[in-house]
């Protein structure tokens, strides 16, 4: 046996200098050897320090150097779905099911596809009784093979190993032990949200919020001396722009109440939106986020008339669509006026399975991508605002074909357009690599938004950013070893992608 | 010279243990050396034991180990187009043109594109006179460069080398020799269909059959003690669902005769389809296969009225389309009832060139893919049956963009949906690699159907499955060397993909 | 220090034999070492001899051998946008801004996206005053990071190093020095167009010309003994086929004048087009080039009626579209008659930003791709002419999804259809690799058109062809190392792709 290891290796995040990386590699080898030689009786969980980097030399060594330079830099998270109340109140997580499983439809959809009923996983329910939470966790561990090869597996492995020091691969046999280890740690102060914000080195975190929200949690966070992370809201007005929704009139009334402006007429509606954007900005918001069935943005001839018909409950579906497409133009106009970055991620068929929606609510794993079109759809908007100084429009999609055909060419001409990170079903390594190649070869690195984690699973934030940093390092290493970039340039780019780039694109210093 | 080889290496399939693999590698090197040193006067045909595996270490060694574990496992072929009569009657093949060229529009289309007339290749004709068969073979050999880089070339090389021990590269000079060698072997008992079924280790083989077919060949095969392969029919009702076809009324009458049920009315039509599905199941069928212009499945308001108008010859094209889309829902309902797996591969523009269709019939190489959409198209069907216990829906496409955007997300939520193998124009290595990555990273490995060869060329079955096993081994090796899977997991997955997975998805044990 | 280098390495194109390549590699290492050891004070520009080749062995060595075999073969450029008057009059270039920046919207769009105003770059203007030209050049150099990772960067590096011997990386600090070095060289005889045609070893060069053009420049070039490159026009009739354009009637009148045929009626219009094609053929043209909003080709029922309405200014947009789609069929018919190769590259949203169009004219960097469809669109045309002897139809697209789904399958059946090189926003290495794989695995290598540079930037022609040769060598090396091709075959293919293949597809010997 080549290595003489007498103490168990810590399940800690790899240490932060080269010696630490070498130690981590030795630990990895030693753990594996212990396993192979029968010293452990069940499979290990032991994420490799080089995971996701190119496998072969010369690219691996270059990638290692690039990754090492960015691995421990603070996290900037400009878009996600963490609940600000959990952060404001520093509510402890109770158990791994509440932490990893219930809120994360990325995980539960894969188990569901494999035959596990969603109710057994506590989807769409509040806190589970202890026995049910443990039973749900056992289902995840016993079905660990269902996530093999997916980013879900990568995130969970990183979280288990790096955040909780777990060293056993999840199986039916190890489920209870892992559950107990995590639950015990969660009871301590070191794993409450504020402590994790520090430990994860999250410098900036944007949540996603309703325009009528009081932003009380954000107000509390802003003055809490225990929170050093800058946590800000994001303006998400989707439901106010869909005049065909059954709850639209009521929503618009609430918006008026929140803004203190009568939304009975179109000018009042616009004024209320503008007022709430100002309130969001005053609470630190840097962006407004939009997701509709398509990306079409066309000014309407008579928006006030459409609004009137909508208020009267007389708007047709076609008119409601026309009104929404008009309002996307208006939101761009407001972004030019007030400086909020506009993000757009259209073309998801939400709640594809009505039975699951009825039983478990939205965000239960059956939002399915559809094709999308940007070139023609955004032309009227970009004709007006595409070269407006300070306007930033970040485009996302789950239709991978659009990156090389439309997004990169648009971002490669318009100073306002940026290519958002691939995300959702495209957050897997091969799609990220395709995106990196397609966008940067057409538009250069300066047109990228930087990574967006878009997560509802708080503990997965570092794992997701770590994946992005590894994949960036690998991509840049391949450019270096093909002699398309010098290594000093690659180092500048890798660093910029997690520091200056998102700061500039999302106006975080602004 | 490093190797001292005194006997010619056999053109046999590589032997089945490690020593055999090493021997095969030595043989390959020796043959090449003989060629380079002038000992052979024309180019060799010498498929490399590592072909299609990753070229560089460390992935190649891992891939070799994974491939070696699955290389010789029996073949499960759940969908293809071999003629069951040829198998039942154990009809000898006469010559390589009849075996490799005439029935395989993958090959003939490439020669046609290169300027070889289809009639010179015997396309769409029965047995050729000996002189014409030989002339056609010469055309293939003289134009060998036209297939360089394609899977057709890979399959043919494997078949020539592994099944017939050919060691000369096809050229104008070697054509007659190869023709004679193969023809001589075909005359022996060892190359008749029953012998090849054994030699190819085909455990399960599904053919594709008309619902009105008597299934006499299958009945004979089932009781033939010389046939150990389980050979079953597949229910393919396309032409009965297309009420706008000129021959539809006649076809529906024949269906009624076959079922012994009056198809004069819609209820009778449904009953006849259900009855024939039962007969297919009684003959061992496990699936029903569907291919139409699109994937849309929407229940019609008045299907009986549409049927009545169709019977009266009064149905409009739009109504015929509505009826077909309704019937796809009905076929899903029947699959829920009787358990036949439903496979769907829409969106081919069949018989693109009318002149070729008129002269040579269908399946003559000019079926061209078009775009397809699944997310919206299948929503009504999946809303009804997507979580029905035991319903299996396997989706295929030749539009590669759909795998990551739609198929994998659907298969990653619905327990009923599986991602079929890429196929047809997508059966090339780079498309298969894209498919492997896109689908498994989004939906995991458990949502794959396993490989489908879909071939009309009986002798190409092992070569096609061998290609898939090599590409699976390569893909998994890349995940292992990027530390995304442990090798024990990769081994389980590689084995499962050719054993338990197709058995489970296609209910072959059922 | 390992290398003892006493003389500076020349910035010359790598020498042409193996010893030369070794010398080039040594020079590259030595220059880098000088830089790292502080002997140079600013970053070097030093394109690596192996750039763009596969990074890892065994593929790199094979790729080097293949590349070396084709590196110095003459250039065949069947489609591009060099101004024939510049060539005919051998007009000297004045400065690097006029040479590299002003005419090349690939470069200026990236700077514009990065915040550099187009007017500061001299876009859409004639010769700039010296101070402005120098200021524009400084903007490029100071923003060199904006092109990192793009093909623009690759082309510019190759041009600066190979054509002008520049050894400093462009930066704000080096801008003036580089500007002065290039300007000085441009003043000499060795960098005038005729000298560069020789130095670039351009054997064949097609320009793009209006059907009513007098072709005087081409006539002069044909009899100029100082020009050994064969320079020919290309027939580009787009604006005559768009009957809805405001300037259409006037254009058609001019066409009639050029042809000496009355275009007042549809038969006269057809006759004038046919006559001008003959004139182009007499001046050496080998192809006719077409780019419209879609690829649809459908014969109209009453084209003469549509023409009459268009002449009377009464044609509707829908009728104008129908007329254009009809005329695409007619152009195919004329190609069958007169032998001009037909090239088709549809589906670009031209002049996406009206403000930029108004200020800077067309071709100013905001032509954005859209989706395209070929299978159904071209069916009527291919039904008529797809198997016509001698008809050649070369298909291009910027929608990468179409290559595997439609173009390769069409080219893999129809003897007339060839897959054009990926181009425009798809001229980046990863898109070219996807194209190479998708097309050749489906249709073989013989269905490729060979590389098309499509450039307006004369000096970039060798850099673009060099990139294509490197990427071809890399692609073929990967097939060789995966044992899918023997190296002798790969060598034949690599050579053919730059010699016999474009010669045959574009009928250059004809």
Automatic annotation (TrEMBL), chains A, B, C:
Q: In which pathway does it act?
A: Carbohydrate metabolism; pentose and glucuronate interconversion
Mind telling me which InterPro entries this protein's record contains?
Metal_Hydrolase, Uronate_isomerase
Q: Which reaction does it catalyse?
A: D-glucuronate = D-fructuronate
Keyword Cell cycle present in the record's keywords: the answer is: no
UniProt keyword list: Isomerase
Q: What is this enzyme's EC?
A: 5.3.1.12
EC category name: isomerase
Spans traversing the lipid bilayer: none
Molecular function in Gene Ontology: isomerase activity
- Entries under NCBIfam families matching the protein: PRK02925.1
By sequence similarity, the record places it as follows: Belongs to the metallo-dependent hydrolases superfamily. Uronate isomerase family.
What is the designated name of this protein? Uronate isomerase
Q: Which organism is it from?
A: Actinoplanes palleronii
């Amino acid at each position: 046996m080549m290595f003489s290891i007498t103490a168990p290796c810590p399940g800690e995040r790899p240490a932060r200098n080269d010696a630490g990386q070498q130690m981590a590699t030795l630990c990895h080898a030693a753990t594996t050897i212990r396993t192979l030689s029968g010293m452990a009786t069940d499979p290990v969980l032991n994420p490799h320090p080089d995971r996701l980097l190119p496998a072969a030399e010369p690219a691996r060594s270059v990638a290692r150097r690039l990754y090492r330079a960015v691995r421990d830099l603070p996290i900037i998270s400009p878009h996600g779905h963490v609940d600000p109340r959990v952060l404001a109140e520093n509510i402890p997580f109770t158990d791994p099911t509440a932490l990893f499983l219930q809120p994360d439809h990325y995980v539960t959809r894969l188990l569901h596809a494999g035959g596990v009923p969603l109710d057994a996983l506590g989807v769409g329910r509040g806190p589970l009784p202890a026995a049910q939470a443990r039973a749900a966790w056992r289902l995840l561990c016993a079905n660990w093979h269902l996530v093999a090869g997916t980013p879900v597996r990568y995130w969970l492995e990183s979280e288990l190993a790096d955040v909780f020091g777990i060293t056993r691969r999840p199986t039916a046999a190890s489920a209870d032990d892992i559950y107990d280890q995590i639950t015990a740690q969660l009871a301590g102060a070191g794993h409450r949200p504020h402590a994790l914000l520090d430990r994860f080195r999250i410098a900036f975190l944007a949540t996603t919020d309703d325009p009528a929200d009081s932003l009380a949690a954000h107000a509390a966070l802003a003055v809490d001396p225990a929170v050093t992370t800058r946590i800000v809201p994001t303006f998400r007005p989707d439901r106010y722009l869909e005049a065909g929704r059954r709850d639209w009139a009521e929503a618009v009334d609430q918006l008026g109440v929140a803004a203190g402006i009568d939304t009975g007429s179109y000018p009042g509606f616009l004024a209320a939106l503008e007022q709430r954007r100002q309130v969001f900005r005053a609470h630190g918001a840097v962006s407004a986020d939009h997701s509709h069935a398509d990306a079409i943005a066309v000014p309407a001839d008579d928006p006030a008339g459409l609004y009137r018909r909508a208020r009267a409950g007389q708007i047709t579906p076609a008119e409601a669509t026309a009104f929404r497409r008009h309002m996307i133009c208006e939101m761009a106009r407001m972004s030019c006026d007030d400086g909020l970055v506009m993000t757009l991620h259209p073309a998801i068929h939400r709640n594809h399975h009505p039975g699951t929606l009825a039983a478990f609510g939205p965000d239960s794993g059956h939002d399915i991508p559809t094709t999308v079109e940007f070139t023609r759809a955004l032309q009227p908007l970009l004709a007006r605002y595409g070269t407006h100084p300070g306007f930033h429009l970040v485009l996302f999609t789950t239709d991978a074909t659009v990156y090389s055909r439309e997004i990169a060419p648009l971002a490669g001409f318009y100073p306002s357009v940026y290519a958002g990170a691939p995300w959702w079903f495209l957050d897997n390594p091969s799609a990220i690599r395709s995106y990196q190649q397609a966008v940067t070869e057409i538009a250069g690195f300066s047109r990228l938004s930087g990574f967006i984690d878009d997560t509802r699973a708080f503990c997965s934030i570092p794992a997701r950013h770590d994946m992005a940093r590894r994949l960036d390092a690998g991509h840049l290493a391949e450019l270096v070893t093909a002699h398309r970039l010098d290594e000093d340039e690659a180092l500048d780019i890798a660093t910029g992608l997690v520091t200056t780039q998102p700061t500039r694109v999302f106006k975080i210093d602004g």
